[in-house]
Amino acid sequence: MPRVRRAELNRHTGRDNLVFGPDPSSHSRCVIGGNIGNNSCGIHSVQSQLYGPGPRTSDNVEALGIVTYEGERFWVGVNEEDDLDDIIKAGGRKGEIYAALRDLRDRYADAIRAGYASVDELPRRVSGYNLDELLPEKGFNVARALVGTEGTCATALQAVLKLTPALLQRTLVVVEYGDLADAAEHCMEIIDRFRPIGLEALDDRLIHDQQLQDINVADIGELPRKNGGAWLLVQFGADEAAESQAQAHAFIDWLTGDKGYESDRITLMKSKQDGGNSEDLWAIRESGLGSTAFPPGGKDHWPGWEDSAVPRGRIGEYVRALRKVMDKHSVIGAMYGHFGEGCIHSRISFDLRHADGIATYRAFMEEAADLVTSMGGSLSGEHGDGQQRAELLEKQYGSELVGAMREFKRIWDPGFKMNPGKVVDAYRLDENLKLGTDYNPPRPEVKFAYPEDGGDFAHAALQCVGVGKCRVPQADSTMCPSYQVTREEKHSTRGRARMLFEMLRGEVITDGWQSKEVADSLDLCLSCKGCTSDCPVNVDMPTYKSEFLHHHYQSWKRWRPRYAYAFGFIDQAARVASRMPEVVNLVTHTPGLARLAKLAAGIDRRRPLPRFAPQTLQEWFERRGGTANPGGRPVVLFPDTFNNYFHTDVGVACVEAIEAAGWRVIMPENHVCCGRPLYDYGFLDIAERYLHNVLDTLREHVRAGTPVVGMEPSCLAVFKDELRGILPHDDDADRLSRNAYHFGEFFETFDIHPPRFGDGKALLWGHCHQRATGGMKAPEKLLRGMGLDVDNLQGGCCGLAGSWGFEDGKYDISMDCGEQALLPAVRAQDEDGLLVADGFSCKTQIKDARTGRKALHLAEVMRMARERQRDGADGGDAPRDRRPKPPMRRRAVRTGLAATAGAGLVWAAARTGRHLAGR
Q1: Which of 52, 102, 203, 918 is the least crowded, having the fewest Cβ atoms under 10 Å away?
Q2: pLDDT in tens, 740-778
Q3: Contact 876, 865 (CB under 8 A)
Q4: What is the distance between the alpha carbons of residues 552 and 447, in angstroms, rounded to a whole number?
Q5: 484 and 42 in contact (C-beta within 8 Å)?
Q6: Alpha-carbon distances, residue 464 vs 294, 395, 470, 500, 804 (angstroms)
Q7: Angle, nearest 10°, between helix axes 713-720 and 731-738?
Q8: How far is residue 789's CA from residue 761's CA, in Å, rounded to a whole number?
Q9: How far apart are the C-alpha atoms of 78 and 61, rounded to whole Å?
Q10: What is the CA radius of gyration of the chain?
Q11: Residue 889 — φ and ψ, nearest 5°?
Q12: What is the dihedral of CA 306, 502, 455, 678, to 10 degrees?
């Protein structure tokens, strides 16, 4: 049970309309064992308290199967007071422990009663050990006493949990206030009058931080009075939607009637299942930690005082007083959190690198602890004390009760071996810091600019704050495809970020850029860019991987694998192959020869090789005489390697779609390549040369403000992302980046209406790089504008990820990545539905997985729509090879050469076989 994820548990119990109540914002990936370890609470602890067993995990635990440090295993439960004599008489390690616990309880009972506030009075009392659970009037609840001990006493192996009514029909009311403290003043009254299932607060600093970082921008736009000072998120739940909505309307009537609130201060939002989008606003709340960790333009913000709690009737008073303490010590931090239960979250601008800053940190922590305890509060109201607040526990409980906690640990762990230095006999709060006065990692010269980190790669390696969103095992978002398959920490974004941090620190990983451990961790990174948009702090692992490989292979000790050259320079190979594509296709698709070609290139033998087109897109465009609209508004269509040399039919469709809108297509005549595959293997010096070539070719157009449109999402993403990272001080690079558009994004930006397709369904799959650098709303909107019913499929990666899935040894995991979301959805789609995917690798993976379906580029769907308008409803649906072909004479010569070459290869193979047989 402890390894079961909370979301998975509730998915099963929800069928019976029951849930495990405590749900921290990490509910999609946190496990029950973690909840037990730190006594988690979460957004819906209000629901768990008002409608279930209680707000904390401890209140929702009925029994634990545990193992002690010595290896003794037994069950501990609740309400064992009446059985104590029998348990102790039975003897063994359990009897010994229970006898010692009873003796401890009896000696300290009066002090415990005086020093422990009740859950009704202080719902979020999480600090210290739950000694009050041993009191006779509580029933001697050993299981609940162990919850929140943070691995310092015993290890939970199994758990029996209590559940709460699910109340799944939910409605959200958002209320704006001029100040967070004013919002806090009303929480107690709201709880008592309306019994919501969630009551959260946000302040304007949190909103400002998210706006600066372009996080949840559209969602923030749904807040009432977006320039307000604070907002309460009040959620109502019931078994029936009508009841939930009635509760919300009654609350609104009270606000506008009894309280006299203006209606524009209030927004009602239904849940997704009820046709609303309240999840958008919950995303703002759940992004709190990530968005306040490293706000741009200011100091880094760190934990320390991130989840203190007071009786909920005093939270407004506490907000005002805590602000004064922050002002006194010249620190700042957003405030948000579980105001319905008196718990405040805040990451604060502590300086943890300098002696005076650390002294300020200590002084603030001590004064804040004095403040919260003076109000009858708890140092921690959510995630336990650990090392950061445990030193201060005497302020909350006094020396006698902290001594009792020490005895409690000794009973379970006589040798003090389990997680020492935490909760009791704790390390000082200002020692063993991640940073500290001795923090001075190397700052090697790097290739990327890292503007968000002040050019400091070491700061980039600090970005991860451990939220663990990359560890969501279901393909709910793009991040992190390899973890979704392997379930190993080192293959998560968080795990890789930690490896890079340790590499720079140099204590555990001592060989820096040459580290094999770091290289192995990064090897399964697909460079999908999912983390750049899905990670709460936008950890950019593809960039870090490119940077690492750039340095890793500068040593004579490290040699790039063969596939790095085969795919890194695919544009150059394609240029050569395009001279005689028939010969190349013969070699790469003839059994035996194809296997040799794959072996030479380091390609997995099970992976089919794509066929080169008979004619390049650039050749077709030149022979055509250029654009069909010489008088139209100009637009540059970038001839990427994949649509220029392989899927030229897509390129033709893109040209025709743009021209059908009246624009004049400009296509570079010389060879240009964004260098996308070069980044995957660390060829950053060469990638920079490629970018200079692109700028030299497009300079006239980017300076004129001419839009540059990409057909292949991964290539266009280079202009939106890597370009400014490699050339941060090049104004033309900035101009190109600002004026580069994904294909569908171009149509939406310039308000170009697509042709009408008519009734039909479309399954839309977005390339990972497009999701990260533009999103899929534009193509979805275009398809809907064409009259199609669109399923915008989310989650995971196709698994091919450019060239990654071609690499030897990656085939199985590549396919497993695709099976997380894409491939099952493709197989389940109706045959008459359209499958739309602009990415070359996505289309290739769909084909290689033998789904029997052909994915179409958005431009191809537009062409089908125009043909249906011209020829009727059945026009444009018949599949055929639409790739442009060179003149017949040229094709005949090349075909003859291919036949001759083929015969020669067959003769050579036969002769070699006879020679080997003779030997």
Answers
A1: 918
A2: 999 999 999 999 999 999 899 999 999 999 999 999 999
A3: yes
A4: 13
A5: no
A6: 10, 32, 11, 11, 25
A7: 130
A8: 5
A9: 8
A10: 31
A11: -60, -45
A12: -120
Torsion of CA 418, 424, 428, 433, to 10 degrees: 40
pLDDT tens per residue, range 684-735: 999 999 999 999 999 999 999 999 999 999 999 999 999 999 999 999 999 9
DSSP-assigned states of every residue in 775-810: -SHHHHHHHHHTT-EEEEE-SS--S-TTTGGGBTT-
**What is the C-alpha separation between 72 and 59, in angstroms, rounded?**
25
DSSP code of residue 360: H
Q: How far apart are CA 406 and CA 192, in angstroms?
A: 38
Both tokens assigned to 321: 């007083």
Give the DSSP H or E segment for 762: strand 761-765
> Measured between alpha carbons, how far is 852 from 838 in angstroms, rounded to an integer?
18
Cα–Cα distances in angstroms (integers) from residue 542 to residues 298, 524, 772, 804, 820, in the given order:
25, 11, 12, 12, 21
Which residues are 792's β-sheet partners?
A: 764
Q: Are strands 308-309 and 198-203 parallel, antiparallel or unpaired?
A: unpaired
Q: What angle do CA 727, 730, 734 make, to 5 degrees?
A: 90
| Residue burial 819-834, b: 16+ Cβ < 10 Å; e: rest | bbbbbeebeebeeebb
Segment 313-330 mean pLDDT: 97
CA distances to 577, 591, 609, 616, 892 from 587, in Å: 11, 9, 11, 19, 18
Q: Within 10 Å of residue 482's Cβ, how many Cβ atoms?
A: 29
Poorest-pLDDT segment among 285-294, 428-437, 583-592? 285-294
d(CA 498, CA 509): 11
CA dist 575 and 641 (Å) reads: 9
Q: Looking up tokens 């072909």, which residue turns up?
A: 885
Residue 291 is encoded by which pair of tokens? 């968005």
Distances (CA, A) of 329 to 350, 506, 897: 10, 33, 81
Distance CA(646)–CA(657), nearest Å, equals 19
Q: What is the DSSP string of 28-49?
A: TT-BHHHHHHHT--BTTHHHHH
Phi, psi of 684 (to 5 degrees): -75, -30
Give the span between the Cα atoms of 380 and 395, in whole angstroms: 12
Element (H, E) at 252: helix 241-256
Crossing angle of helices 581-589 and 888-918, rounded to 10° = 40
Taking the C-alpha atoms of residue 257 and residue 251, their distance in angstroms, rounded to an integer, is 10
Give the H/E segment covering residue 642: helix 641-645
Q: Which residue has the tokens 């008979």?
A: 614
Q: Which uninterrupted H or E stretch holds 903?
A: helix 888-918
Calpha distance 492→472 (Å, rounded): 10
Whether the Cβ atoms of residue 783 and residue 579 lie closer than 8 Å to each other = no
Pull the structure tokens for residue 478.
Answer: 């793009």
Task: State phi, psi for 203 to the nearest 5 degrees.
Answer: -105, 170
CB-based burial of residue 700 (10 Å sphere; 0-12 exposed, 13-18 middle, 19+ buried)? exposed
- CB-based contacts of 647, cutoff 8 Å, min separation 6: 613, 840, 843, 857, 883
